[in-house]
């Protein structure tokens, strides 16, 4: 019997589900569209239409009791009436009947759900209640659900070809997994991706995230070989702590790019501490993303600019950029942008310069940027870029081309592609060319990423370098826990139902946690103060203790360097008068050892109701808020992360020692951060803590806290089990 011609050979059996939890959603073999509609322009029509025109590789069953046929497909009155098995159901019915439809799907044996219908938690209390019932139902049945209130899901895998969205723009196949929390923005994202010629593996509009969350999607894409870059547009983190854990792991394998909206939103927090005043929700988010190796983009445009560099380029092994150009202006702009983003201009070696001089015109500049001048052709680009890339001092390159009259920019881009191909260094191109060029470049996906302006290319290079650096940082074993007196701390925190601890209690908490303090005594009156000073030894410092007195030196409540009994007596009287005059009731005095030398730094803790505790380190003293030279970190901290916070401030140069001064012992400072991290995680009632100043000294034995403030809340500051 002759072989059947291909065209009529029986279809291959649909591949079995691979057994990952979200496979019924991404790789269904059959789909029911519950609420399919014949009305052109309706969501129920558009979604069914998208499934068909994108050639879904499985069976489609429209469900609508009011129709026999929709879009040439036989229509069923209910999911239960479909004779074949159904893997995925897309629900588009009015909100009141979503629950019933979902229950019917579960009874039918459906394994995945996409609930497009709106009218849930986004509309308030009534909707929230409806959503909770829905979540309970699907979780009890072990069925996974995207939505409700979402735009749907796309999988461009040629074996699946699923477009279960009502978006007008189809997605091209590619290497980026994209998840959007906003449905409306999802449409825009697909449009931008289409315009830039960027392909996706999968696209998910998450909607209200009643069941499947961004965290679930990260885990789904973690080991998916086709998805080489993960991109997220987020408005909120359901469970930030779980996100940290997953993101830290995933970013070791593939880059994760996030646009988190709400950058300027200020947390409505009572900020009486230095740390609280400086930290805001957005600072928290950035610290938190940074620490997991996540790349944060400001806009969708920037996200795609970086994503396409990540998809098409190798990672650089350092941060030194070589620039090759045919015009001076854009190269200067590119240089500025690179340097301000933390990249370094590569120093070209003598051999490189000599080689360039041998073939470039005499007017050309063979330093970095290499300016080949306007007569440069595609061949000049190929030779020059090759020589620059082969310099061992160059980690990546930027080719800039302003279209001259005679050279076609596509030829230049092809030349760049040839040079870049067998050199394992990223090369991005900036082509200042016409629209026609960009249209052609978009179709030619084998060509290296091309940008319209030097700044966007520089940003993409900077992100490549940052991600590469993250991949190189070794993972560390978790810090061993410090032996501390937690029961003692708990007992002290108990003393205050809500508000500030007494200064002495704040000091005791630090002592119980092994954080060094300047010797101190509490004194009720002059006699006790004198006795305390004799015990500590002159010179001393004295400070007033008074209820509600927060910033002591503002009201003259601090006197330093008191060298004898007479000076002390005079200071006590002066302080009492000044502080009383400012309207505070002096209850006593703190007598402290006078500390000398070193630099004043600040350690802080603040808490965010969603993210939990946040640690701060920076230059301290009275002008903390003026300079705001601080870095944040999310506990638990690794020692490396603590050191990174310290090295991250501008003033680290002071701490390392300038003009012959001895540097401070940074390990000692890192240890304080690690101890504070442990304190905040073990004592969740702690809301805010400021140690300002802490004296950072060269001799680790002389480093100590001089002032501390701790505020506690009535209950835990955040819910660690939030949205598990
Ligand atoms: P507040 O922050 O409430 O104004 P501090 O206790 O921090 O009060 O004291 C203000 C400043 O006085 C500190 O920033 C530091 O410069 C100095 N100071 C405080 N205590 C000492 C001390 N024990 N030794 C030396 N200087 C001190
Ligand atoms: Mg202070």
How would you summarize what this structure contains?
With 724 residues, this protein is α/β, with parallel strands linked by helices. The chain is flat.
Instruction: Spell out which ligands are present.
Output: adenosine-5'-diphosphate, magnesium ion
Distance between the termini: 60 Å
The number of strands is 31
Helix segment tally? 24
Q: Proportion of β residues?
A: 15-25%
| Low-confidence sequence ranges | 1-15, 263-271
Whole-number radius of gyration? 32 Å
Instruction: List the strand order in the largest sheet.
Output: 9-8-11-10-12-13-14
Helix content: 25-40%
For the sheet with most strands, the description reads: 7 strands, mixed
Oligomer: single chain
Instruction: Tell me, rounded to a whole number, the average pLDDT.
Output: 91
What is the overall silhouette? Answer: flat
Structural class: alpha/beta
